[in-house]
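Per reviewer request, we include the raw input and output of the structure prediction for the construct analysed in the revised manuscript.
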Amino acid sequence: MKKNITSTIEYIGVDDKSIDLFESQYIVPNGISYNSYIIKDEKTAVMDTVDTRKADEWLANLKSALNGKAPDYLVISHVEPDHAGCVELFTRTYPDAKLIGNAKTFTMIKQFFNGIELTDKTVTVKEGDTVSLGSHTLTFIMAPMIHWPEVMVTYESSEKVLFSADAFGKFGAIDTNEDWDCEARRYYINIVGKYGVQVQALLKKAAALDIQIICPLHGSVLSENLGHYIEKYNIWSSYAPENKGIFIAYASIHGNTGKAAEQLAEILKSKTNDKVSVADLARDDMAECVEDAFRYDRLVVASATYDGGLFPCMESFIAHLKAKNYQNRTVGLIENGTWAATAAKKMKAEFEGMKNISICENIVSIKSTLNEASRAELVKLADELVSK
């Protein structure tokens, strides 16, 4: 990505391609970017720092952009360590600069940096407050729980730029050439997905602004076709299915439940042109499985009974869905058990506790392996799913 976003706003962020798991849980095959920006005017503002993993590279980028000048402000939109990790380094390097944040920002900063000296170094802002840099004016908009309570976004009115914090972010390094939707969806659903109500509130605030550029804290700067990205966020945050399709997620011990899931997929493909996708929860990326469950309007969960309950990867999958406020979907159930099968009962109870979930009447119960009777049940379930 080019460094100069505009003639006065420059990208000074870094890519991290050596990280194994983002937030110690998300596979990032193309790495992650930690985005930081600088606005040059009569006064200079730095927009966020980066993870300490890339402190030296970021500081070199900052010094190069400043070209011998000292910054006047550091805006802290989000205190999470991948963005505020270098705040203390910044204050040591530029002791005369002011830190801009809200009241919660500075409470949290002290928790991460014990002993950091903030006396006479902070500018505390609230909703709608502004700071002038000269020809640029920063307006601060609170965005609590997207996805931490202190989060705020910043709108620069002269160049119509929204510094959006974690909103509109994605997995993947800046120089990765990949479709935005896929990795932005996986990022949103798994990291921000629980907070749809709060995202909807931010979208309403953003609708009142003339936005030409979106500068997120992860992923590409967005400057074209902004309506597409905003539409995706509206879909995801309202918990509406993005596409018509059926996602089948299975948890199989010895392969028999998996065979049933694959056979159901073949039956469905013979009956509908809607997308049918299958995942092995024991082996596939859990975050991607959660993403696909939200993406499509119908879900089938197929699990072996294990210790009187669910096979652990299915238990984890459903827990992830529940944590991210899974709702407004149709769910089909398949269970397997050599004796005392309880998986369907357990799964049904979990989904009944979620909002606006329609559970298919045809529940498939397998005793060890598929037989003529259970295959007939698969056909009935397929017919019901196709009719939805």
